[in-house]
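Take a specimen:
=====
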Amino acid sequence: MQFNPYGGTAAQLAVALVNAGPAATADAVDDVLTTYDYRPAHDVDPAQARELARWADRLRAVFAEPDVTGRVRLLNELLADVAAPPYISQHDGRAPHFHYAEHDAPLVHRIKAYTVGGLAHALCDDPGRIGRCDRPGCDTVFVDTSRNGRRRFCSTRCANQAHVADHRRRRRRG
């Protein structure tokens, strides 16, 4: 599946922030931003990390919502919280691309706009590709970029654990 930059990298950044968890340190958030090529002018401080953890918790609700209409409602609420007129930007040698927050907005606000924009684009491209791991006990989220769009687990390890548990349950029954 081909994503635009918001539905691709921005959606994956949203996933990474959600999966970093509520106790993510400023250094951990910096590592996530670096991994997804988000280049802030300065490092994330502890207060910003806490604010992004609260934001990630709100993003997690989108992944937890089983109904597309509910996901649309949640994303619209999040988009309203960071609403700014979109504009085309060119910076750092990159091709022209959309921004959904003013370039001089505070870092946390720009990250919020970027991540919710990414999830919104991913949802509009294919609502079934925003997912949560099906293994009981795992709360890892993902955006399914597989060719067939049928991903159910966050990793091969979780898939194997779930399948082994199912196999053992079936053997006990019969």
Remarks:
- The chain has one domain: 6-132.
- The beta strands are 87-89, 97-99, 130-132, 141-143.
- The chain has a mean pLDDT of 90.
- The domain at 6-132 is CATH 1.10.3300.10 (Jann2411-like fold).
